[in-house]
């Protein structure tokens, strides 16, 4: 569940949350960049689904169907979709709340007829993406668990598969059952995945989060000490003006949900072979989506 990119240029976007308008703009921009030889991969940073009520029409289902149709995450595809917490909860039947909002059941009602296809797409989403030049890309950023929980190392991330949990409940694949989620959350794997994909970054950990960024970069470099991860790119938390640096080694990107307005939404364009020494160098590679 780790994707390694050795060469080419990556257009990276984050947290669409069912915004079909932004999704179509991203496809247009990527198509133009690709035709001009300026981009080779389109990377979605997770949380493709679950619109916030009242903000725009929820096109989560239609977006996923379009990505499946284009062969995203299949071998040889130039479209890569990383796993976000909003996708994770459907794999494991976990109710996801934000205040009075309960996201999971709403989307489950929409995908009832084709739930198996949707979940199979979600379970193929990598946790991490690494470039040859040392940029680490993931949905939620870092957590205290990367340094603290030794039994889940980089090899565990590489080999981990959701398939076991998926096939264990294949007979009821078309039914959303929160009891399954409750049982999974009581496992060591469930507790760990919830923490690394659902934490609040510096809003939760304060200044200690800066060290956690370095911990994650070190964690993700375990099998490549001669070409370590140097910078981190994530989404997960909104940014008013589309992108911001978090310390010296992290860029937070916001391409849709979480921006003040459309004209602030950003995408990141980087070269997989290039080394970006710090977050400011990544910030300079951000561009307006509109």
UniProtKB/TrEMBL annotation:
Designated name of the protein: Calcineurin-like phosphoesterase domain-containing protein
Molecular function via GO: phosphatase activity
Listed InterPro entries: Ap4A_hydrolase, Calcineurin-like_PHP, Metallo-depent_PP-like
Superkingdom to which the source organism belongs: Bacteria
Lineage, opening ranks: Bacteria, Pseudomonadati, Bacteroidota, Bacteroidia, Marinilabiliales
Domain Calcineurin-like phosphoesterase: 9-170
SUPFAM superfamilies, sorted: Metallo-dependent phosphatases
Family annotation (Pfam families): Metallophos
GO annotation, cellular component aspect: cytoplasm
PANTHER family: METALLOPHOSPHOESTERASE, ZINC-DEPENDENT ENDOPOLYPHOSPHATASE
